[in-house]
Amino acid sequence: MLGCAGCVQPSVTPENYTLEAPEDMVLVLDRYADVVVSGFTELEVDSRVLADDIGRVSGNDSEIVDLLLKYYAEKPWMALLAYYPENSTEGMFVPAAFSHLRAAITHHHNESDFTGSHTLWTRPFYISEYGYVAEVSLPVYSPDGTYRGYVSFFFDSGMLFHTFAEGVPELSEYAISVVLPDGWVLYCTATEYIGWDISGGSLDFVIDHEVDYNTLVVLPEGVIKYPAYTPLYLGKYEKINVWKTVTVNLFGTDVRLMVNRPVSPWSVPADVQFTPDAGEMTKETLEAFQYARSHSKEKTLEYIRNKVSTYPLVAYDMEGNVLAMSSGTQRSSITSWINLHDAYDVSTVRHMIYLAQQGGGYLQKYESASVGEIPTDALLLLIYVMPVDDSWFITIRMPAESEVSPMIPHAVSTVTTLVRNTTLYAWEYGKEAILADINSGSSKLLAAASGNITDFAAIDMQGIVLANAFVPGDVGKNIFSFTDANGASFGRQYVLSVMDGGGLTYNVLPIPNDPTQQSVRLIYLEAVDDKWFVLAGTELDITSRADPQELMP
What we know:
CATH class of the largest domain: Alpha Beta
CATH architecture of the largest domain: 2-Layer Sandwich
Shape: elongated
Number of domains: 3
Radius of gyration: 30 Å
CATH superfamily of the largest domain: PAS domain
Strand content: 25-35%
Structural class: alpha+beta
Largest sheet: 7 strands, antiparallel
Helix content: 25-40%
Number of helices: 13
């Protein structure tokens, strides 16, 4: 079973997936785009009229100044006008009080700069009286077609786009951003960030919450993404930010308009929350994390090594190498634990890396509790993962149950054999044959499998369920929204695992209608090609739910 009633929805990061924009987002942004395009069309017409008028009186400085002053007075959002005659670095500024800009402006256009383009945008320019302003330059020609120079319009984009927003009253509920193709922020609701160059980094401030700018600029027009922000599963779900983008042409340049607003978390009961515990497990992890935020990495690792922890505290890098262990932690002394497996041959550290990559949270694993080639008993452990940054993370673990749980020695063979046979079948007969078999309701591949199979599905690399033998209603859904009993997105872990080569993993699902119980499943994943993969699972045990809160002393 992939989906389940009562599953907690995950914190979704920007790279996860897209879906259709809600109707209100479509209508609001389309209306805003129409208003902006209409406004800039009028602005472009007026500005070209001014350029033509200047061309007709070129050489008469007093008349040019009068034209500039008249245009400036009629446009309250115009911060500055400047006319640069041909073969001159000295501009004529309106208002004249801003003449101090003559020394600050470093660019100067020539006639050749306008070849193939009737307008030139330059990066937002800072004026102390206004802050950052947007600049557009138009060539000036005399009536006989002779190039006479160019006129630059410096407009207060904050005031201008705010004026445009008044035409769409619903925008009062939204945050707005306008970004030029080169990554310069032309406008955003948080006006202090107008003029920022975010081409090589994140658009943290413009969108008001963490999101990668480079992800946004490549979004197809009309697509939205939605991250649900909750700090590492330790805080109550706060909000989901939804945004939609559209590209419009302004003065001959395509710019990206974005609107976003918070909405209520989807399918998350109001009383669902994971808050820091009062015991030592998460407390010690948070202490180490807070230490890391205020000290160097080397100092933090030294802090962990010297710490006497209630439970084993270990720091890893994203390659699975142990960076530091708390005092008294008993474990193998090898440097890399990437291939350290648990009682079901699942790579525990890989599992933790996947969880760290999606923001951290809780996971469970069975650790061998008996010695020998085939362990017969295992201890269920609860592990908390907290990333420090994108290169390393901290973990702490504790027993989730005091008793040992029975092992099923042949469980690994049960799931790996089914997936291997399915992959071979797909290579021979094709993708559609596999999907038809799994979705048929009487899968021949499943019927031929041995053991107790509880999960059998095909999924693409974007997380979309293509086929599901046990939960046909999941077909078409995205598995990133499927979470385990501890709120971690096992769906995202599946895809990360497959991209890393696949193999064994597991999840712990809540039992519908019984929040005190959970189903521990062993899952095997294998890519058919670089577009989709197959998984099979078997139920290992039904245990009491390892609720982090209830387990704390």
